[in-house]
């Protein structure tokens, strides 16, 4: 992974966020300097044609006329706002209500992937499920509940109820309890392909206990916008409806992976979309379904989804392919995998990879004495192993008793989701599979999604028995296209923005940083290098060309001096220890440079991480990394070099472009204002257990809202709320004061990475820390209380928009909505101050808008003010010449978190060279991992680096 010349789409798509599958994978903004060739990565088109047969042409849909839903009439919206305006909300106790609806922009109509619930039962009944003896495995528990539904005692209630496979049962009719308030049924468990008489079957006692009654009338009163219902918790009701809506899918082949996602098996080889060159994984397609409360309606949000499953086949062959593709720790690849043994036909779960092969492992047999495992299988079963010494044995036993078998005697059972981290080639292929046009996604949802999820009306459907009916047409909602802001370069040079992008030709940076003491470090990996050495004439020519490109962008190159170095590092270097020693020796060989241009011979992620850790943390020097083959002239490298110049200038403290003109800029300049961005990244699947999460806070230090240095901290693993927020906000406020000689009077914080269910937690845990930072940043006795607005920026949602005519369609970009599309009616919250904004132009696939929700608003924003400000800021992203999909402060916080991941690369990737003390206690082991991470992290980036946008 290199410092590519900008990836304009909103951040996501890698490890650290948890996995729940890919949705339609809208490919956001492409390269920063307009016209640059596609490079892969965020915002650039994915290569086509991998992972299966080509997609058939999209069939036209015969849709009814697009008339905006009658529930969204002007009078109804005005009445809603009027009612909400009478409520008194205390800042910090709950989010503010919507102040009004936006009016700025060109009105358009859009279809949204929401379907109305037109019929519901009057009441729902929630019950608790408990098994005796207790069952830990969700797979076993779900099977027990399936058999419960078929039991004689429960069958009268089965058609009116559904379970979540864990501990909850929802019914549309009351279930009678015995005198003690329970219903207890004995269920005999056996696998799907076995029978009740199977010797491995086991009896369980299932106890059903009444929990509460849910009144649908209260939910309908809530969505009507009744001011008395503003504090009503609708989540138990929507969760109950989601369980009922999932019943058809789970009973008809749907596999539940993650929350509200259901995937459908591939039954023919022709349908298989293999991921990666090793073909270990295959992509399954499915649907996301969730009940959403929107104004005057309960609706189902239905979207396409894609995720990875294990490819069925022999586990021995799979492991050989795994080691050939990546090496590393196979435990993370196969932990929890279900297999069927070839020699005995048992179904087992893989617990771990052993340390010895079938040839090396020896045990004492009562008949044959001391014997190797490979010889045992030959004598006992007449099986000659194919990989007796190449593969380690696997433990398929229990927690208390190991059972080691050769991997090649295990077959991977079908339809098992893969929960690990995808490799680069697997991610690429997954994106290819998931990346479909808006028209195709719309067709799939309407023609397959409704049917697959059981939402099509039918007398025999499970929903009909329960008393639920869905409308079959997507909601039609009003939207607006906001005009792009004005962008300024040096000398007020005008820019023409088209499709959210502009050209940098003949313009110069607003504030150009000088190039003086620069170092170029060329690194060949394992003999693969573009240059023969530091004196290679081609290297000198390339640096002259790049210097000239920087000069054309306005940078002062009159005193530039390049110190050139070239080294070769070994390809097999665990932890890149030898590579770091060689690089460190080279960087320390002369005077400290202002910045190091690292020219990599290959796109090696581990080497990139090692360089960033070495330079950011240990040497305190700025770096920009490029791949040599892309940096050279062949293949459009001049535009690539211009992209690098954008980053180089900002890292050295310069300003590329700024907002100009009236509107949002005028609002920002009314009073000293600081924009903060906050985010947290978590250990991904396959990380060493106990590896910390990483939090980051960025904040502008200039009146142009361009320079955003970052504060970063480690915190408890997988904890979403930021635990050291107060001290990081203090750092940002002090940095602002040092540059401007004052503290901001207004602070607008964009919080990335929290779900709707965590909004109250943000107010409860993070807001007090921000208040505390305000108190502590000034001398004792002084009161500092700036106006504070907090808005959450959410990308992990499933709301999608489909233009209904040319007025709202971006004809250049795959029939997505136009850049600048904003929606704040019809599919937004009933009471909350929120909106969807697509500030970028979708390039390939379906564009995903960002969902902004205000949690506290002391600045007193009106809808138009906040929407136009957020949209305008999306054009200030420093390493792009286009609007991006996520407001820059939040985007920068995400990038800072990703840089922090470089420092803990080995722990986050579960590499074998990470050794922790031999504690068998899991809590103690996790504590040791955290302490090791703290030692690696040290104080984070050095003092010089941390004052700049080193992470961009």
How many structurally independent domains? 4
Uncertain stretches of 5 or more adjacent residues: 4-20, 27-56, 915-919
How far apart are the termini?
13 Å
Report the CATH superfamily of the largest domain.
Ribonuclease H-like superfamily/Ribonuclease H
Strand order, main sheet: write it out.
Answer: 32-31-30-33-34-40-39-38-23-1-35
Can you describe what's shown?
With 952 residues, the chain is α+β, with helices and mostly antiparallel strands. It has 4 domains: 1-113 and 476-506 and 653-952, Nucleotidyltransferase, domain 5, CATH 3.30.420; 117-252 and 454-473, no CATH class; 313-413, paz domain; 512-644, Response regulator (Rossmann fold, 3-Layer(aba) Sandwich), CATH 3.40.50.2300. It is 27% helix and 24% strand. It has 25 helices and 40 strands. The strands form 9 sheets. An 11-stranded mixed sheet has the order 32-31-30-33-34-40-39-38-23-1-35, sandwiched between helices. Strands 2, 8, 9, 10, 11, 12 and 22 form a 7-stranded antiparallel sheet that branches. A 5-stranded antiparallel sheet has the order 4-5-3-7-6. Helix 13 (537-552) packs across helix 17 (637-651), helix 15 (605-619) crosses helix 22 (888-903) and helix 19 (725-740) crosses helix 20 (759-776). The chain is globular, with a radius of gyration of 29 Å.
């Amino acid at each position: 992974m290199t410092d590519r010349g900008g990836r304009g789409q909103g951040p996501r798509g890698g490890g650290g966020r948890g996995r729940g599958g890919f949705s339609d994978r809208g490919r956001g903004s492409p390269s920063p300097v307009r016209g640059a060739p596609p490079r892969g990565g965020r915002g650039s088109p994915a290569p086509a044609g991998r992972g299966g047969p080509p997609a058939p042409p999209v069939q036209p849909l015969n849709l009814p006329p697009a008339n905006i839903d009658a529930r969204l009439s002007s009078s109804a919206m005005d009445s809603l706002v009027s009612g909400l305006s009478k409520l008194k909300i205390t800042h910090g106790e709950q989010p503010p209500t919507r102040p009004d609806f936006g009016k700025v922009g060109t009105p358009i109509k859009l279809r949204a992937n929401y379907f109305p619930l037109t019929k519901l039962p009057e009441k729902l009944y929630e019950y608790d499920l408990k098994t005796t003896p207790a069952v830990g495995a969700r797979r076993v528990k779900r099977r027990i509940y399936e058999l419960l539904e078929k039991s004689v005692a429960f069958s009268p209630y089965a058609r009116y109820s559904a379970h979540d496979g864990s501990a909850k049962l929802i019914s549309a009719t009351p279930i009678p309890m015995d005198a003690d308030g329970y219903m207890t049924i004995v269920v005999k468990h056996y696998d799907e392909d076995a029978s009740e008489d199977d010797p491995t079957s086991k009896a369980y006692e299932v106890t059903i206990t009444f929990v509460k009654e849910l009144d649908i009338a209260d939910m309908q009163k809530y969505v009507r916008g009744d001011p008395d219902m503003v504090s009503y918790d609708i989540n138990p009701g929507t969760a109950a409806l989601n369980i009922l809506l999932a019943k058809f899918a789970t009973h008809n082949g749907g596999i539940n992976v993650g929350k509200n996602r259901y995937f459908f098996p591939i039954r023919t080889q022709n349908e298989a979309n293999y991921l990666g060159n090793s073909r270990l994984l295959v992509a399954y397609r499915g649907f996301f379904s969730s009940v959403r409360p929107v104004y005057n309606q309960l609706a189902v949000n239905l979207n396409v989804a894609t995720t990875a499953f294990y490819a069925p086949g022999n586990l021995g062959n799979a492991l050989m392919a795994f080691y050939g593709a990546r090496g590393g720790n196979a435990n993370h690849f196969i932990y929890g995998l279900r297999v069927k043994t070839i020699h005995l036909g048992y179904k087992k779960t893989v617990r771990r990879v052993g340390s010895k092969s079938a040839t090396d492992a020896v045990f004492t047999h009562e008949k044959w004495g001391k014997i190797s495992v490979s010889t045992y299988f030959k004598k006992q079963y007449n099986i000659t192993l194919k990989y007796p010494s190449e593969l380690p044995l696997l433990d398929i036993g229990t927690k208390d008793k190991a059972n080691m078998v050769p991997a090649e005697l295990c077959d991977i059972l079908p339809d098992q989701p893969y929960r690990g981290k995808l490799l680069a080639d697997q991610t690429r292929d997954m994106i290819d599979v998931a990346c479909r046009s808006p028209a195709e996604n719309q067709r799939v949802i309407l023609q397959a999604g409704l049917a697959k999820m059981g939402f099509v009306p039918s007398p025999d459907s499970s929903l009909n028995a329960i008393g639920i009916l869905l409308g079959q047409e997507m909601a039609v909602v009003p939207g607006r296209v906001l005009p792009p802001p004005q962008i300024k370069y040096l000398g007020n040079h005008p820019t023409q923005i088209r499709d959210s992008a502009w050209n940098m030709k003949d313009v110069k940076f607003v504030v150009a940083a000088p190039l003086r003491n620069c170092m170029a470090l060329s690194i060949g990996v394992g003999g693969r290098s573009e240059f023969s050495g530091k004196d290679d004439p081609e290297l000198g020519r390339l640096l002259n060309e790049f210097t000239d490109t920087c000069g054309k962008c306005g940078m002062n190159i009159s005193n530039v001096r390049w110190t050139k170095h070239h080294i070769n590092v070994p390809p097999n270097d665990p932890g890149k220890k030898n590579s770091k020693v060689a690089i460190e020796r080279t960087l320390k060989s002369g005077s400290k440079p202002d910045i190091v241009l690292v020219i990599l011979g290959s796109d090696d992620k581990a080497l990139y991480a090692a360089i960033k850790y070495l330079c950011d943390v240990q040497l305190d020097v700025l770096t920009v990394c490029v791949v040599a083959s892309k940096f050279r002239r062949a293949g459009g490298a001049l535009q690539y070099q211009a992209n690098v110049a954008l980053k180089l200038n900002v890292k050295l403290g310069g300003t590329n472009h700024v907002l100009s003109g009236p509107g949002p800029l005028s609002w920002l300049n009314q009073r000293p204002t600081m924009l903060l961005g906050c985010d947290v990244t978590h250990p991904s699947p396959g990380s060493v257990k106990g590896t910390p999460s990483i939090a980051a806070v960025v904040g502008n230090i200039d009146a142009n809202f361009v320079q955003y240095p970052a504060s970063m901290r480690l915190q408890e693993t997988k904890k979403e709320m930021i635990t050291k927020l107060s001290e990081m906000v203090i750092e940002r406020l002090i940095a602002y004061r040092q540059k401007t000689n004052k503290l901001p009077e207004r602070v607008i914080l964009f919080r990335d990475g929290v779900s709707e269910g965590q909004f109250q937690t943000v107010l409860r845990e993070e807001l007090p820390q921000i208040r505390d930072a305000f108190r502590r940043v000034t001398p004792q006795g002084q009161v500092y209380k700036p106006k504070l607005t907090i808005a959450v920026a959410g990308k992990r949602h499933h709301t999608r928009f489909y233009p209904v005519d040319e007025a709202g369609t971006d004809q250049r970009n795959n029939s997505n909505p136009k850049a600048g599309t904003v929606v704040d009616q019809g599919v937004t919250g009933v009471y909350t101050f929120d909106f969807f904004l697509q500030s970028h132009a979708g390039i390939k696939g379906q564009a995903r808008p960002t969902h902004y929700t205000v949690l506290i608003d002391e600045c007193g924003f009106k809808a138009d003010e906040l929407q136009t400000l957020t949209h305008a800021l999306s054009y200030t992203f420093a390493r792009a010449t286009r609007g991006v999909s996520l407001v820059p402060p939040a985007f920068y916080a995400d990038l800072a978190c990703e840089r922090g991941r470089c420092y803990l690369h080995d722990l986050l990737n579960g590499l074998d060279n990470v050794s922790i003390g031999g504690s068998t206690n899991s809590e103690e082991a996790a504590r040791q991992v955290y302490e090791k991470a703290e030692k690696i992290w040290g104080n984070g980036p050095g003092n010089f680096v941390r004052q700049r946008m080193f992470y961009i």
